């Protein structure tokens, strides 16, 4: 098995007697053990009269087995032992996975293995869980992704299994003619859940022999029904569905044009990756690229290439363009330009040096591959196990074995007008059909003879250019020699008025990569909602200006980001470190030469308005979260305030604003990874020159937070446009001590699975039900939330209060071993070692921001967690969370379904946000 030289894990591939394919991974340093099992059965296999069956089955397997019959027991066991679990159903796969503290892995696998040998499917659980599936369907009924997906299903070959409804609801999963859906569920399970179409990956610090022992113990009894995967024998599209223009009406303000080309499956060519080569050229964003030229012409904002659905007999290749309002009026010209670029690729773009360039980038990514979390690792390896040859399971994603011009030309032949479907998603079109399930208005019309002529007889567009050789490809790949002190935490190596420089050379992860953070705090940038919006506008304009020239650096394995926050803006660079100084120089040049053109300003402003308006169409629970942080953090206004302010801003206001912002700066920089001290100091000089830092006396920006101590219950009602109701309760700690962090974190850990089991699985109040740990500006916070298609906010509020009232009793009923196991599981999660360079950089950077300058906050919290007794936790629940006396903020929305129901009458409504925010400091 081909592995990376930077990968110290051991692997073993085997096939059990029942034909289950298995990959075992020994990782001596794994903080948790993890397992993933995928079965090559998905919604393509749903019976035509039982659509959503595969998805329903995925839900049901978690709800009790012969050996472990209690509903919710699996999740409780995983959570108590510091783990997490989930599953998903796709077109041709259903995948289950979990991770857990290593000492509990064997027992976790015993429970997990039972899913595939002895599930109960008890009647009561069947009835309740189809309600959960129905809630999941209803939750996304106004989700444009689902709505557009349904139109795609209705406009491909209706005989293809992709056309089926994948989620399921109460009508597809109902009991019929005296026969329970349970009977069909059992028949589906026994027919399809067969070991010969399954793959299993186990990973942990356990030895390979021990892991193999587990597979024999817990998975060798999965029956082999010899189901052998059936190939799909009908095409994804026929001539009937090609050369069609599909128009779809979205709920959100979208303008997207998609060119879709169907072709046979290319899975067998994974070692060569021909479509990656073509997507690389079509999706290029550098000078002269298809995206750059269409942007210059004011027609598009973004372009992506290479997406699309795929299956065992088809692959769809899409080119997606987000349009400007002007672009929406010129879709024919945009398509013409795309075909001109395809013609350019056919004539001049098939070169082995281009293939070699992409291959070398992938080789470096593989060679210096860093670890991912155990759960993420098993999740992608189990898919590779089913799709790649055994020797390529680790390497398959990175392989580019050889340039094959014949194959590229064969695939390019599919990029033709006769094989194209063109989709325009935009509001205000003309429609004559409505899609099932999601009520999406759409229309389908054939291409006109004029369009076919215009797009077929193409002459080259002289402005379009293929990318030049990449100057950012790195040459020095050995990490720099370690300097003295590299094992220490980050050091403050420069502390000047208005400028601080932190540095750490990474001694543990020896990869030639670096991460640089530059936090630019400016009190002027956040002194009003108007200035906050101007800051965000400038960030987007700068990112737009940088994109074209910095794109080759991204291709070469470097990335950058610029983002606004409560104090100003932060610039971040990451990836291979050798050419990071050049990339920083390029970005700083753009900072200096800020020439905002009217067209660019208009497009960015329109995009931001659209994104913020669209966010106000998000599901209610997302809007409640946004409004919660907007209420509590004055420097983080909610979307309606941002929209109202942005509408009034003009381009001539920006230059004086930027000057004023740069006149009062405080900069914190952290240079980390494959960087030595002298180079970090040199980078600091570059930054100080660029930002004109000379003995400035400005401190960091204040980040105010509203404190809700002694407030009792405060309520805030939001107005959304959705059928479901939603509620969110937030509790806040006034103190930021390690003890308070420990209490709030443990409370969430203890509550989460019980809350989910009680209010979702048992009471079926909705699909989105949960608790969360929400620290704001270092202050610990606890949230409980529900989005419900079946109950109004007053009912949901009572249900949550009943839960919190009873929770002290739940804690009393835990035996001492369970109490200690819960604490140990949480401590294992918190103290989990950093997986890779990026995770460690993030942790250090958060510590710097939180003034944890000894980098030991985590240890202090763990010490307090160890000391917490059950009496402490019961006292916290009774004193802080108990409904009648609690200081809390309750955000809610009454869904359209519940407009006539009992109103929520608890607490004191927040009448004025301005007065409420006077408590912020």
Automatic annotation (TrEMBL):
Residues 21-158 form the Peptidase M16 N-terminal domain. Its EC number is 3.4.24.55. Keywords: Hydrolase, Metal-binding, Metalloprotease, Protease, Zinc. The keyword Zinc applies. Residues 366-643 form the Peptidase M16 middle/third domain. Residues 746-845 form the Coenzyme PQQ synthesis protein F-like C-terminal lobe domain. Transmembrane segments: none annotated. Its cofactor is Zn(2+). Belongs to the peptidase M16 family. Endopeptidase that degrades small peptides of less than 7 kDa, such as glucagon and insulin. This is Protease 3. It comes from Photobacterium aquimaris.
